[in-house]
Amino acid sequence: MASWPESTRLIGKSIPRLDGLAKASGRAKYPSDIRPEGMLFGVLLTSPHANAKVKALDLEPARAMPGVKGVIALATAGETNVIYQGQEIAAVAAETEEKARDAARAIKVEYEVLPHVVTERQSTAEGAPKAFAAGNSRPGRAQTAGKPDEAMKGADATIEATYELPVITHVCLEPHGLTAEWKGPDSITVYASTQSVMGVANDMVETFGVDASKVKVLTEVMGGGFGSKFNADVWGIAAAKLAKEAGRPVRMFLDRAQEHLIGGNRPSAKATIQLGATKDGKLVAMTAETSGTGGRGGSNFPLPYVYHVPDRTRSHTEVFVNCGGSRAMRAPGHPQGCAVMEAAMDDLAHKLGINPLEFRLKNLAETDMVAGGINRTEIYHEQVRRGAELIGWGRWKPRGQGGDGPVKRGLGMALHQWGGGGAQDKQVACIVNPDGSVELRSATQDIGTGARTILAIIAAEVFGLEVGRIRSNIGDSTFPPGQSSGGSTTSPSMAPPCFDAAVKARDELFRRIAPGLEAAVEDLALKDGQVLVKGEARLTWEQACRKLGMMPINVVGVFAQGLSSTGVGGCQFAEVTVDVETGVVRLKKIVAVQDTGLILDMLTWRSQVYGGVIGGLNYGLFEERIMDEPTGVMLNPDMEMYKLAGATDIPEIVVEAHDTPEMRARGVIGVGEPPTISTAAAIGNAVANAIGVRVPKWPMSPMNVLDALAAAEGKA
Amino acid sequence: MKAFAYLSPTTPEDAVKALAAPGTVEALSGGTDLIGRMKDYVASPERVVYLKDVKALAGIVEKDGATAIGAGTRLVDLVSSATIRDRLPALWQATTEVGTPQIRNMATVGGNLLQRPRCWYYRNGFGLLAMKDGKSLVRAGDNRYHAIFMTDGDALFVNPSSLAVPLIALGATATILGPGGERTVPVEQLYRVPKADADREQTLAPGELLAAVTVPAGVGKNASYEVRQKQAHDWPLVMTSVHLKMDGDSVREARVVLYGVAPIPWRSEAAEKAVVGGLVTRERAEAVAKAAAEGAKPLSNNGYKVALVRTTVKRALLSAVGDRYWQEG
Questions:
Q1: What value of ipTM does the predicted structure carry?
Q2: Top-level CATH class of A20-28+422-557?
Q3: What is the β-pairing status of strands B25-28 and B238-247?
Q4: What is the pTM of this model?
Q5: Domain residue spans in chain A?
């Protein structure tokens, strides 16, 4: 079993990311900024209809437009059935973006428009048009443990409620796309905004039949993917085809409206839950009927979530709609499962008259073992205690005691969990040159998480160098195979081979310089840019490397057991105010407590948690894809009516690492996903605590809050 | 974006000439509305007349107690004007909440007043009234941001100007230059309710140019209160501006104007009537707010706006007399 150094100089400290200044100052060139010589602008023509047959397609008017250098069809007349607004019809490449747009509009498409269903309500309504051959929805089989109906009868208190979360879209700051440049007839270089340079390279190999050795995909930096950018996609392949046709590089990135329509989304969720407990606060049973839509794809989510419900049954119905399909989004499924479970937990605690924090702790499984012999239940207890301190849970009051004025204050909380383990088959090359420069190479990429920096930190730790001395060369598909960045797997997949590579390179350096130093290899060490012999500085790093002569060290590191693990937990607390006369929710503070094993760079780790919380608060307060039932179009495919937090909407966020010797001993675990899971749930619970009424629909918008208050008043 | 002819006159006279040319003409100032519509092909003018080089249109001038604001004045200049802040807080408050700093640095008073509706059917290319086969898409679809007054008609969008509301409350007039010379109308007469898609919701004739708005002397207590979902860049859901001329502590004359509830800036005569002739207490403000909401006929999704009418009217009134009860505690 390999292990990380016991004491570290760099690992676990707060180290600024290597490309931070370039990014913050605008000098970093993102894939969408790349402009190879002679580049053409590509534009995608997409369907305005949600359900239609393509009867005729005439590209000639576009070809005749000035500046147009290539036009290709992405649909076939008489064959293609469009099943959502935004489905690709054709693509154009022209000298300017404006010319390409005008040309795309000039393409003549004749549609036979068919009746559509674009919302869950519309899809499942009585007499709804049959928009999908296999039916508009697909009920799942009930998954049952124990005898929930019988157990429910033994409950002292039960709640039954329906909770709903909307579809939200990906809204990556940098849109999906790539620029394709052919270097001769059988060799292609692609600048892609991707989470997987290897995935995009593979798509090019398979589509064009070129040798893998002649495909190079580059992603120096990129502007966010969150699970939606693993492949070249229809538009990326179109760019490469147009580039081939025109004999010039072609840039094809989606526009903002297309991003919303076809760039991927998180499925909706609706859950009707009955949850019962004994009067001393032990859950006894749950029955849940859930549904959701991912377009034509799945929408399932974990339920029950986190808590132990001995007897339970749950069935999930997939609802299909004529909308762009879902893609993996940061912790797929978990935020939905967390929100509905935690809402039900809170509502039941309220009914029982039990502090919801105590109620949660009482209902964790006795043992919840994750990798490395860790009982996550014990971790949760510690995390909740710490989070409660940081938010000031001592101030918690039962619902409806949020204050005398119209602006009510409330506290809420939620727990979450994730895997975060890595792959065991990835590689990192480490090159130590005679001039003392050090380079790491791997075909992984930094999607904004700090991957480049953490690899450099690991190597710098081993070599006793400053982090800035390491060239962390990733985002190139021709390098040794690296991890696709999804599922919080990048760090746990890449850190072990990186460490292995650096250790191997160091050992080879020692072997090669030891004779000249008349020292034994085991007497050598590296520290502060010096080579030590039996603890005494003898050579600088540069002097040592010069002794390599003309022959650099070039080694490949692989996975080693003991350096990474999986299985994490966390909790979040929210403090809000809700103005009951306006329905406006303002966040005052969010506390996020998280464990993820050994933290490599505290600064990028914290940044990940901030980002997760901000994503989660957008889900809690603002985001919603709004589809129009009469026309089948998305009404808010922009960044104006599709609401996202601005700087002034972000509250104080307290990030707390559950960073103990026991956790560090587990090795590296990814942190990308877990901290986005429970934010929306905690906010929903804080709102209910403030106003004394459950707002059953996310986001917590003035409309949804005021509607819930009005409904409660109507009932009273 | 369709190709267009571009003119940048430097005098009001030349601007009028340029605007009066035949064909479809759009005036461009800050560009925060027009450019977006052109990129989305919602507007495809043959000619665009850029007005920011007409320096005579910009600036704030005090004269005989009146405040004249050039149509080309940027919103950031209104926000940084001590006169506006101290004398016309209703206008100042509404202006500070428009868009973002970047937008306020570009956008102008005239552009804010004459921007086209944000209705998502209109912006998605379904026309100003969004009628299809004789039926209203707004009525059948998602109308959470649409009107709750005048909803018997076909125009269900809401007027998008945050500045029109306080300006109407303050009794401002608009100076309009045209081929036939100059005319002056109350700001509220810049707007009308269109009957057909081809109608404009604005009354300026082809070739006419909004030159300035003037708030007359003798301004009373005034305030605005806006409800919006986000604190950063967002549109008001509902906003109310009030203007109260007082006899001692008693209201002699009042204007109560609302944003976000009708296809025109909505003057609530019921509220104005209810507030005149007494003190502005919390109790009376509540009663006035109730009067303001009477007659609202929400659409299928926007019943919540009725509560926002009550709240914004109440809070704007109380704010005008210095009572911000919602900030207590």
A1: 0.97
A2: alpha beta
A3: unpaired
A4: 0.97
A5: 20-28+422-557, 37-115+171-262, 270-318+340-418+566-715
